[in-house]
Design a protein that fits this description.
The complex is a heterodimer of chains A (about 90) and B (about 260). Chain A has about 90 residues and is mainly beta. In chain A, about 10% of the residues lie in helices and about 35% in strands. Chain A has a five-stranded mixed sheet, with no helix packed on it. The termini of chain A are far apart. Chain B has about 260 residues and is α/β, with parallel strands linked by helices. Classes of the chains: A mainly beta (about 90), B alpha/beta (about 260).
């Protein structure tokens, strides 16, 4: 299932095209805006930083780097949190 | 008369309750929170899983105050050391704590641990500064190896996870208690309050359970029963039981019989 996270109509008086990147997010293919950061993605998903851990291409991104870590086309991202378990 | 506090420590952190409780399999988050409250547990286990992206916004931590408990993320569902280590690293990042319940499973049907992979994972995690509480078989050789590696406790199973069969081999547990100096916590297999009391009467430092409470007909009542059972078992152990004898020994005097 594909999700477009940001869509913008092209302006008629000049060519304006937002570029997208294709990433895998928790096992599903998703398109996100070029230039997205981890923080931007979490904000869009309405996830609190303190409650999650984020892994990009098998590397865990520390919380201090959420604002600066830019995502790239082809990235495989896992966002996890604590659930009930024994 | 002042009662001495019977606290215990894991990796230098002190706890009063010797009952550790899992947060899985409850009917609702609300029930989970109530059961934890009734149990008096201070240490609770959680699992690490993908955030559900098309989901209700509710999560376990909306109902449980993480500041009130020591969270013990588990590596449930991991069958290799690599997966377990990866899960622990993610857990540390999500929870900002280095306590982990290390499980590396060998078999889907029994959920018994894969001891070889368990030792491999434990070595890596201890080196990375984790406080490792490994779920292991009730095997003294494994427990000694886990202690030597630097695990903070050992958690031998009483019986398969969720089986409710109780302490299948109390003699193994006793041998383990004699052989390691780190806390011994029976984890897995407890079904009834008496099972929990038996574990404590053997001399265990604590008991960890999930299904026994969550799967009971009245989980809140069972959580309270388990709390009392762990306290009773511990008191009984410290009080020093009578020896077992083959023959009777009368409790009433013979003097003054009519």
């Amino acid at each position: 299932m594909q999700h477009s996270l940001e869509l913008e109509k092209p302006k008629p008086h000049r060519v304006l095209r937002r570029k997208y990147m294709h990433i895998t997010l928790n096992g599903e293919g998703v398109d996100i805006a070029e230039g997205s950061t981890v923080a931007g993605l979490l904000e869009h998903l309405q996830l609190q930083h303190e409650r999650v851990a984020v892994e990009v291409n098998l590397d865990i991104i520390p919380k201090t780097a959420y604002d600066s870590h830019g995502l790239a086309d082809g990235d495989r991202i896992e966002i996890v949190h604590f659930v009930g378990g024994g | 008369m002042t009662t001495q506090k019977d606290t215990w420590t894991i990796a230098g952190r002190e706890f009063t309750s010797r009952l550790m409780v899992g947060t899985g399999k409850y009917a609702s988050f609300q029930q989970t929170a109530e059961a934890l409250e009734a149990s008096g547990a201070e240490i609770i286990t959680v699992a690490v899983r993908r955030v559900n992206l098309d989901r209700s916004k509710e999560s376990l931590l909306d109902y449980i105050d993480p500041g009130k408990y020591t969270l013990l993320p588990n590596t449930a569902g991991c069958y290799t050391a690599d997966d377990a280590v990866r899960t622990c690293r993610l857990a540390r990042e999500a929870g900002m704590s280095d306590f982990v319940k290390l499980e590396v499973l060998g078999d889907e049907k029994t959920l018994f641990p894969d001891n070889e992979e368990l030792l491999k994972a434990a070595r890596i995690l201890v080196k990375e500064g984790f406080t490792v509480l490994p779920y292991t078989s009730d095997d003294v050789i494994m427990c000694k190896k886990l202690e030597d590696i630097g695990c903070a406790a050992v958690m031998p199973l009483g019986a398969p996870i969720g089986s409710g069969l109780g302490i299948r081999n109390p003699y193994n547990i006793r041998i383990i208690l004699e052989s390691v100096r780190i806390p011994v916590i029976v984890d897995a297999g407890v079904g009834s309050a008496s099972d929990a009391a038996i574990a404590m009467e053997l001399g265990c430092d604590g008991v960890l359970m999930n299904t026994a409470i969550a799967g009971a007909q009245d989980p809140i009542a069972m959580a309270r029963a388990m709390r009392l059972a762990v306290e009773a078992g511990r008191l009984s152990y410290k009080a020093g039981r009578i020896p077992r004898k083959l023959y009777a020994s009368a409790s009433s005097p013979l003097d003054g019989m009519i």
